[in-house]
Amino acid sequence: MPSTPDVRAVLHAAVEAVGGEDRPGQIEMAEAVQHALESGEHLLVQAGTGTGKSLGYLVPSLLHGKRVVVATATLNLQHQLVERDIPALKDAARATLDVVPHHAVVKGRSNYACLHRVREGAPDDQGTLVDVPEGSLGAEVLELREWAEEQAKGSHLGDRDAAPAHTERAWRQVSVNHRECLGASRCAHALECFAERAREDAHTAQVVVTNHALLAIDAIDGVPMLPEYDAVIVDEAHELAARVTQASTDELDPVVVERAARRARAQVDGKEADDLTDASDALADVLARTAEGRIDDPPQPLQEVLAFVRDTARACLSAFPKDKDKGEPDAARQQARGMVDDIRKIAERMAAKGETEVLWMSDNRGNKQLHIAPIDVSASLRDKLFADKTVVLTSATLKLGGGFDPVARSLGLAPGDDSWSSLDVGSPFDYRKQGMLYVARDLPLPGRDGLEEAQLAEIAALVEAAGGRTLGLFSSRRAAEKAAEEVRTRLPDIDIWCQGDAQLPELARRFAETPSTCLFGTLSLWQGVDLPGDTCQLVIIDRVPFPRPDDPLMSARQRLVEKRGGNGFMSVAASHAALLLAQGTGRLIRRATDKGVVAILDPRIVTARYGSFLAASLPDMWRTTEREVALAALRRLDDAANAVSTPEV
């Protein structure tokens, strides 16, 4: 029998299996992760783009001998791990391991088709089961139902990612969330249930892939979503605090309360559902007189109406008949009960808001909605995740201002604490030779009214010099649209795509396939978009992406830091901006042959006191504040790209 191989041998075989080559940073990372898993010491690893960090943590996870959970922030990375990296690793490991450990994927219940809903139908707004909707939606639902039955016959996963193309509305007709589910003990289709089978599969796996939200629900909220595990690898860890906050955020509005009342009306015999409708009307009336933004001290009318919603939802919930009184479990009743219970819990949470939570109201075109979220999740992460499990956190952007402390602090790890260590394995790219960082020092400071003539002229000049090939990252949709409109007018021969012109994947595809075009957009383009090669030789960032001063959550966090004696601006606003700048700048160099310029049109990077903190968070590109130097570099890149695309005959 062969002995258990070391991490280097399996990593080398896995890298060969995916057609890669050994990289010192990847080897260093894999050995550090292996040490962390064995010692129980938490580890933060910054691994730059091109390092191959997924194999850097998957190999030691596979060799650990105990269950490891891998949590990602995005579906794209989860798909890459499950469809490419893990299968390649397991194929490579078969040559050196007696038994190759099993892996599984765990997603939220709504990501799987529900056979009960597929076969029995979905409730409408009044709680009546509707077999198939009419029109094009009905055609989509029929196709999804046929697909789900085929999945069941073939013992497949019933996973949404494998489903035929569909809309969100159609998917809701064939799926349920955790509150709508009848439960395995009461569902006639439990033995075939895709979600239950996925969870059973996870209990036999050594490596379990999931997302940040499910990890948070399992570890922090205490709701069992995952099998027992020894350690967790958090990839895209710069997103962890935000995703945990998002998973812990609740919303309440009159429309949702009224919808719950309508569903309940078909299930309860008394006037309790009508009382809940009255509570919805009262909530609408109070919100109409409430200012948008953060609510530090809820006024008496708001306190009273939240208590009214809570109490009427509680009474309505008590009025539901038990399943034993109505015969077999009923999906419509289960869904209605779940909706009313959600209303009760959220209203109760908002009515009891303490100092550790922030309450605010938003107004989206007349749809007024209350939100509540934890101000700071670091204590929860410290006490409920790091205290119980070994945690490895990795990302291409974990160092802010040149160090790990800002991110560590936001996640509940105290700077200087010997319970964790950090490692920067660098990047295989030579940023100083491949990239230029141009800061437009001579431009005026960004104004509150968006892009002015000076910025628009600068954008047009940069795009013209680059011959297109530009990814424009803007702080607002209005700025992106204004820049696109202006550049189209000034440079009519260059195609400019703007976020909103089509679905984002379609825009990214067009941009990648036509190198001389430009793609302008907002936050969703700052992270996760991979555009290697000549298609992107210029990244424009219009301004330092500080959070809005009236952002309820960020302003509450900043105030909390200051209350504790810290620097709220640097800890919250500057750290947030540094992280986004690092992510946005990282869109330029995606492989060893890429070259280009990042142009930041905000002089504060070099003129403000906090500018050095922001600059230290960015890749080590060659830097200049000279406009002509940047334009000349772009023209040379354009000439080189054109020479390659139109070779001499």
From TrEMBL:
Alphabetized Gene3D superfamilies for the sequence: P-loop containing nucleotide triphosphate hydrolases
UniProt cross-references to PROSITE patterns, sorted A to Z: HELICASE_ATP_BIND_2 (PS51193)
The keyword Amino-acid biosynthesis is annotated on this UniProt entry: no
EC number: 5.6.2.3
Keyword list, A-Z: ATP-binding, Helicase, Hydrolase, Nucleotide-binding
Listed GO MF terms: 5'-3' DNA helicase activity; ATP binding; hydrolase activity, acting on acid anhydrides, in phosphorus-containing anhydrides; nucleic acid binding
Name of the protein this chain belongs to: ATP-dependent helicase DinG
Lineage, highest ranks first: Bacteria, Bacillati, Actinomycetota, Actinomycetes, Propionibacteriales
